[in-house]
Amino acid sequence: MEQQIVIIAVVVLALSFDFINGFHDTANAIATSISTKALKPRTAIVLAACMNLLGALTFTGVAKTVGGKVANPANIEHGVYVVAAALIAAIIWNLITWYYGIPSSSSHALIGSLAGSVIAAAGFTAVNFKGFLTIIEGLILSPLLAFTVGYIIMSIIRMIFANVSPHKLNSNFRFLQVFTAAFQAFSHGTNDAQKTMGIITFALVAGGFQESLDVALWVKVSAAMAMALGTSVGGWRIIKTVGSKIIKFEPASGFASDLTSALVITGATLIKLPVSTTHVISSAIMGVGSAKRFSSVQWGTAVTMVSAWIITLPITMILASLTFIIVRALLL
Description:
transmembrane helix, about 80% helix
């Protein structure tokens, strides 16, 4: 009975994380289209919520990676409590960074928290460091790829449309941004919602409620709905940072950054690799801005964001370790 109560609490925490992820990270997906006035804020949020839901229901490969690459849930004693502590730590960090308008990574927060909680519960040997490092490599390399692709796409656009009048160029790309914003929100759903599916599945296996890492239909639907609802709330602090404090957007640059990040995130989903949508989107914006003019990027804001990215993993690992120690003292 106690185990069932704890697993219910874990599911509630996981869906809460997914909801927070919706308004924390999805703000990134629609910030550029709002900044360039391609979409009105309310329309952009509704579009993002619908596409996020669709994306979340489409794939499950990333969920299996998150559920089994960091550690083997079947080998973790008190695994359900481990997941609960990880989720509490990740939620705390997400709320702190959301409050201060810092587009940190929910993915880093979740992966770091899970690793820290596992270490506190079963020691360093319980962590599958090969799988953990594979995930970290993807989280590190994907922003670099997004920066490069964004730079290339924006350079091509500038070369092809060099002689087109700014008014006509803005009008055409503002129209195209509707589609790239939808694509970006869809890609976000394909990757980010699966992380919550993976963490719930980890808890179900650890608690003996199922044997495989296959994602149950109810897990898939509930995680998709939680993220869509979070998206509908919106994340105006993050929208302000991403949409105006990195570069000054025009429709063409908004189109380029949206397309870049959507392609990189979708590619990662297809190879079943969790990436930080926050990192990818922000790096794509920096790459696009650099292609226009290196000085057009507000590097001070960029440095602040990168600093948040760097500290997220160690802070969430420590926070989750402390949280598990408290949970163990109170409940075990």
